[in-house]
Write a structure and sequence with these properties.
Blueprint: H1 2-29, H2 32-43, E1 51-54, H3 62-67, E2 75-78, H4 113-122, H5 126-130, H6 137-170, H7 193-234, E3 245-253, E4 263-271
Antiparallel strand pairs: 1-2, 3-4
Helix pairs in contact: 4-7, 6-7
Amino acid sequence: MARTQHTMIHRYHALIERAAALFLCLLLICPPECIAASVAASEEPENQSAVKLEIPAEEVPENQADKTSGNQSDEVFIDAGIAVPVDSLPPTEVVADDYAYDESGRRIFNPSPTRAVWLSALCPGLGQIYNRRYWKLPIVVGGFMGLAYATNWNNNQYQDYLQGYRDLLDNDPQSNSYMDFFPPTVSESDLDHKWLEQVFKSRKDYARRNRDLCIIGLVALYALCMLDAYVDASLTHFDVGPDLAVDWAPTLMSPAGGGSRPAVGLNWAFTF
């Protein structure tokens, strides 16, 4: 009997020690301040989760004071921040880059430089049309047509002189296409073949050089159209008002090496 009582007392003490240890762990995990705050929050009504902010009557704007009735108080309920009247905010200036429409309600034209380049690469002149620079289209078309005509004409001249030069070198009396460059009254026996070879060779090289230059001009004009479309689209909203100016004037500068004579230079200043 005494052993049974001793065992029960031992279990009772062990249970008390475990309860105390559990209580200490709960205190470490949840301090009393957090428990008090949660209990206070649970006691508030569900429909009153906002915070009350006392605003003195003299700080309320006049237009807000006129709208409030006599039975309303000066308390303002906020959830995430303080509500500020729209009339008290400073005016915000909206620029063309941030807003898609101007003051009259029309959509602001803002081309994309990347799209302008791709359109110009697809067909020269499309980038200028996309940028609404229609006056550049006749220049582009005229430039390509002129260079294409010059390339074709110089290539025909080159082929004719090349064939005549070959006929002069083969010593075949049946192949005399070089005689097409002379009137029918001219006889082949009256011509100096050595002189003809030099003339045909120089004109052949001259026509080939002009043809190659025209081809290079076509490629350069193609690249220039792409560059013009990109720059034109990028500088669509560039300010070209009267405030932009540059002043330049000749000036005398002191020599950098410590010489006695001043140097003559040019001084300029940009005004934005």
